[in-house]
Amino acid sequence: MEFPVFAPSSVCFSSGKGGVGKTSISINTALALVDRGFRVLLVDGDLGLANVDVMLGLSVQTTMRDIIANDEDPRTVLVYPEPNLAVLPASSGVPDMVNLGPEDQAVIGQILQVLSADFDLVFVDVAAGIGPSVLWFNTVVHHNVVVITPDPTSITDAYALIKVLMRDHNRRRFYLVANMVRNEKEGIQVCQGLIKVVKKFLNVEPEYLGFVPRDNLMARAVRDQVPAVRSAETGKADEAIRKLAARMARGL
Questions:
Q1: What are phi and psi of 16, to 5 degrees?
Q2: Three-state secondary structure along 118-129?
């Protein structure tokens, strides 16, 4: 399939390691961009262990799997938490969705091409790691964002993800977001460390996109199924998310 399949600007949020807060960043940044007047489609690209709907407290009846299996109209599967934010849900506990073959990938590509025409931005929140669906989603979007934390395993796994995408799929432009850091200084340091290694060994220079500090508000938001940017409280994480959204609104 030719790159990319999306009509508007599309962004894939990935991570080498699980548990880095990637889904939370995807959801909150999407909502912050909605507040800036964008129409955003948020695709749950974790095809076997969906969690976007859970984190938003959504009631989902049909998923991407139903579109593939039953030829459902893709627009009827979308769930709207807010007027300008649509979620394309994935299935949970369905192992066969994780290893999509070329035919299923082509179908999903066509579905996303149809849906994306109605939006200004498409966010794809994929599973952690370097599984087939993760790599495929990363190759059909315009922009690749990799979320890392100060955890050394997060950084080494992110390096492996970037290496595979560059070596096997000719992706050469990456953006980094540092999550769960003390402040922006640490966020920049964490990203610069990875940038230095990637540049040295892969001859590619990722770009620092932003940071999200460790904040109890984010943890509570996940438990309460209410995104941090929609919480009655505000905090440092909320402020950082909105700065990240502002950077993306200017264009990557």
A1: -70, -35
A2: CCCEEEEEECCC
pLDDT in tens, 93-150: 665 666 777 787 888 888 898 899 999 999 999 999 999 899 999 999 999 999 999 9
Over the stretch 8-26, which tens digit does the pLDDT of each residue have? 899 999 999 999 999 999 9
Encode 62-100 in three state secondary structure.
Answer: CCHHHHHHHCCCHHHHCEEEECCEEEECCCECCHHHCCC
CA 60 to chain centre: 20
The phi and psi torsions of 175 (rounded to 5 degrees) equal -120, 140
Instruction: Tell me yes or no: is domain 9-249 CATH 3.40.50.300.
Output: yes
Cα separation, 69 vs 135, in Å, equals: 22
Both tokens of residue 41?
A: 């489609």
Distance from C-alpha of 56 to C-alpha of 221, rounded to nearest angstrom: 10
What pTM value is reported for the model? Answer: 0.94
User: Phi and psi of 106, rounded to 5°?
Assistant: -65, -40
Task: Quote the DSSP letter at residue 51.
Answer: -
